[in-house]
Amino acid sequence: MKLHSIRSEYKYAVLSEKSVEKNPFKQFDHWLNDALNAKVIEPTAMSLSTLGLEGFPDSRIVLLKDFGENGFTFFTNYNGNKGKSIEKNPAVGLHFFWPELERQIRISGFAEKTSDDISDKYFYSRPVFSQIAAVVSNQSSKIPSRESLQNDFDILKEKSANAVIKRPLNWGGFIVSPVKFEFWQGRESRLHDRILYEKLEADWTVSRLAP
User: Of the N and C termini of the chain, which has fewer Cβ atoms inside 10 Å?
Assistant: First the structure.
């Protein structure tokens, strides 16, 4: 397999300091809507990077469930590796990649737990089977088999028929407050456009980075 011969030219769009919004959240909103309109597969999927418990960088895909000027929200098991890593070091990275649009967004920021009200509101909006899965999964822990997990799921499903599933206290949201954004637009000959936003007190500065 000759991987070095795999190459694509990027010609979808351009990105300039003059064309972007002064506010990175507004620019993100534009690009997310472009991804939704283009029917990108999993447009809200983002890579969450943390400093792992053993000192290695650790990345995994999570789903963005809300965003605004206060930050970017996702939900998880607080006792899983990502939750424990954030508790130890709240500095995280988010990465969106939309290959259909030849675009990436990288975000650096600090994560903290959302309120119980926000966690409850989202948890009870989920399908019941997803709620049950959140209860029975001791995320990131070793388990005997797939069958044992399925058995725990089936038992709780039967017990909780026609009943409200209570949100586990170890399951909820994190919100990431950004301090840096980078918007990347693929360009021909690998002369990509990279626009950087950096937080300066209450304002955002805009710069261009070399590709």
Answer: N
pTM score over 0.70: yes
**Catalytic (active site) residue 190:** yes
Query: Would you state the pLDDT for residue 1?
Result: 79
Going along the chain from its start, the domains and CATH numbers come out as: 8-113+174-209 (2.30.110.10), 125-166 (no CATH)
Active-site residue, selected from the candidate residues 106, 190, 194, 208: 190
DSSP, collapsed to helix, strand or coil, labels residue 118 as: helix
Residue 169 corresponds to which tokens in the numbers above? 């206290």
Q: Do the beta carbons of residue 60 and residue 174 sit within 8 Å? A: no
